[in-house]
Amino acid sequence: MDLVERVGAYAGLAAFFGLAILALLYFSQARDVRRLREWAGRAPDRAAGTAVTQHYLPPTTIEQAGRTRRSLRERIRRIHVPQARYLALAAGALVILAGAGIGAVQLIGDNGGSKSQAKNSGGQARTGGGGSRNQGTGATNVNPSDVTVAVLNGTTVAGLAAQVGEEATANGFTLGTVTNAARTDQTRTQVLYRKGQMNAAQLVSNRLGIRATAPVDALSSELAGSFDVIVLVGSDRAS
Fold first, then answer.
1. For residues 149 and 232, what is the distance between their CA atoms, to the nearest angstrom?
2. Cβ distance 217 to 190 under 8 Å?
3. Are 3 and 110 in contact (CB under 8 A)?
4. Over 50: is that where the pLDDT of 126 sits?
């Protein structure tokens, strides 16, 4: 969509200038047609005036006509210059071609960028295992006893939070607040972490077999009190 908007902007600009030049040409042509009609209406008067003045023209011999040299001003005046409408038409064509060229360059550049992004995505997909190993390495560098784990029961199953708290304690973590969550319709168990504790959350996730991790929300943070990581227990933990 971004590409279509950019190319459409260039095409619209070129079309605007083209329409403006066509409008100027239209009015110029209408003015020339009006002058031509006026000139054609005065044709009888010009014919009569020409007939009268022809009797007073001095005779000119062929030799005199051949030796007559035109002045510099007259020669400059006789240089053919294209009419303004043709110059405007040429300028409009240049503007439209420039807009089309810019649009083509944008299309080619974006196609190249898309291919590069696809290659980069493919490289990242191939090295995804390495990224997981790096996360695991960061998690193993965390001492479980330094991680305070709070447990919030997001279900209606009584004692489920205490059960998960015992698992956290058995895996060497420091147990924090154990209470109910704000909502009781949690289906999937999550490990929520505060800022700077992503590695700790990864370690808790690995030790307790929880797949989902996410930054903590404000309400869960308020319920848990002092913590590094929160285990928001879902109904999948009850089975």
1. 10
2. no
3. yes
4. no
Q: Token digits for 105?
A: 């360059």
- Read off the DSSP letter of residue 227: -
Q: What is the dihedral of CA 63, 65, 67, 72, to 10 degrees?
A: 180
CA distance 53 to 16: 52
Contact 233, 152 (CB under 8 A): yes
Q: How far is CA 10 from CA 1, 68, 97, in A?
A: 14, 57, 11
pLDDT band at 224 (very low <50, low <70, confident <90, very high): very high
Taking phi over 0 as left and psi of -120 to 50 as alpha, with beta for the rest, 61 belongs to beta
Structure tokens given for 175 = 């147990």
Average pLDDT over residues 210-236: 93
Whether the CB-CB separation of 132 and 43 falls below 8 Å is answered with no
- Alpha helices, H only, the chain: 2-41, 43-54, 62-67, 72-77, 84-126, 128-140, 160-170, 198-208, 218-224
Each residue of 129-170: pLDDT tens digit?
444 444 445 566 889 999 999 999 999 999 999 999 999 999
Question: DSSP letter at 45?
Answer: H
What is the band of 238 on the pLDDT scale with cuts at 50, 70, 90? confident
